[in-house]
From TrEMBL:
It comes from Rhizobium viscosum (Arthrobacter viscosus). This is Phospholipase/carboxylesterase. Residues 4-129, 151-267 form the VOC domain. Pfam families: Glyoxalase (PF00903). PROSITE patterns: VOC.
Amino acid sequence: MASGIHHITLITRKVQANVDFYAGFLGMRLVKQTAGFEDATQLHLFYGDAEGTPGSLVTFLVWEDGAPGRAGYGQVSEMSLAIDPSSIGYWLTRAMRFGFRSEGPADEFGEPALRLKDPDNVIVKLAGAKDLKSPAVWDGSDVPVEHAVQRVRGATMLTEKPAESRHFIESHFGYRFQANRGTIDRLVSQSGDIIDVRDARGFWSGAPGTGTIDHVAFRADDDEAVLAVHKTLEKENASATNLHDRKYFRSLYAREPGGTLIELATNQPGMMVDEPKATLGTKLFIPPKDSITNLSDLKVVLPQFSMPGQPRINYRDLPFIHRFYTPPDPDGSVFVLLHGSGGNETTLMPLLNKVAPRATLLGVRGRATEEGFPRWYKRITPFSFDQDDIKNEAEAFAAFIEGAVKSYGLDPKKVVYVGYSNGANLLNSLLYLHPNLVHKAVLLRSMPVLSAYPHADLKGTDLLVISGKMDAYGKYAGELEERLKTSGATVDSDVIPGGHDLGDADVPIIQKWLLQENKLQGTQ
């Protein structure tokens, strides 16, 4: 049985910063990008050497703008990447040039190590390991090939049960004890990489989230080797799970006695099973068994990124979490999207991409929460709402739009706002609380939510209201439309046969309205 690390998987909060660090600063090759195998709406990136060789792979689950985790026992706390020992000086200089703070070099078990933190504050060590070489060094970055990252050197595991954790790794994954330094036992594999088992008694427990290492995966020659470990773990009543087919490898998950998630992954079929070496990492793939997911919808929902040196959106620190989707051939139109209760900044993107495939979409996430899910303001009952919260969030959203206009160069009079349910209700409130902010909007399944409406002159405001015939909230749509018309807005309305949910029936109605609006603008 082969032994050694196959890959290490982490969780990142910002995909662009992640790509800039691992592909840009470290010069690793992006060898694969896929939709998540457990959640297709989650982007998964793989970095490695030129061929994505097992042992070189560092992978990231992208939880864009997700909640941060905490490193502690029951987790891998840091990882190290192998470089030539003579390259330490090069990397020390490069870190200073890129503005990354480094510590060291320090001697760790007889080899020099430079400690850095990636954009998620994960500790990444560059370890001078002269005997660890990649069979396919990547020479496609600006890092000279002699200084390139070769492969994964190792990982540090925090455990409250050091003896049991060490025995588990030695018994099932082919590692043997090499040396001890204080609270750390260093285990080495046949491949030459290492696992440092650190006694973390007295530490706090780890918590999953962005900025943490999700698991370390060890190597297996083939399916038979994985099955053999599976059977052994079952006999020992360990926490083994079922086998998984990850397309690029087949694997087994288990938790070692200290709580760290361990994976055992086959070397084959490898990263080049669905794309040639020359174009590795340039195409988004969907897990083969995910037949219900639409690739075009996924491309809209998954966070976009640019490779180092390519143009990108420089996101600003504004009051609301937000996400852009830029189509391959944008026509200059911009839609600002406000989700319904329980949605997020990407929820409306697939629908609006169907409506206007060449439009740039700016999805925004509401800041209020209900049972942990985003909303735009607090509600007291399904039909009564916190008035102060509506006003406060409307003011904050107005400030967000002002900042977005300045930061991203938006033309306020050309922006179309689209709100659904809770988001549409914030929009119709904004029309009165902050007149002249919204000039054109689509209100989907909307109702009036303000208990007292200030006077507002909405002349020049163009609105489309779409309600559902079977929607419990639909009976309020007529009241909303009359109020908006009385205030001077131009209001078109339509009713779909369904209820509160959105669907394809909304698409042609919005498209027809947009076409009419564009024709009107053309005659002015």
